[in-house]
Design goal:
This protein is of the alpha+beta class. The chain is 26% helix and 27% strand. The mean pLDDT is 87.
């Protein structure tokens, strides 16, 4: 089991918030929400679906610079305050 940690960008976009993961943007890891929290929650769901699809199709999971993606075989907890 591996833990994947990706940088998330969440920013206002007119009347909604857009969110995307730079390391997985080519794979479609982008979404939106009515609030910043909703956009981030939606992005978590999208990233999970993208990773599951990549693993299912035996494709490589992009590893960007350490400021964009980290992969660990050790369990981790990510907290954003």
């Amino acid at each position: 089991m591996k833990t994947y940690i990706f940088k998330a960008v969440v920013e206002p976009d007119e009347n909604v918030w857009s969110a995307y993961c730079p390391a997985l943007l080519q794979q479609g890891a982008a979404t939106w929400g009515n609030t910043k929290e909703e956009a981030l929650h939606n992005l978590e769901d999208v990233v999970k679906m993208v990773l599951e699809s990549l693993l299912e199709h035996r494709e490589l999971i992009p590893e960007g610079p350490t400021d964009q993606a980290q992969i660990s075989i050790e369990p981790q907890v990510a907290v954003t305050l």
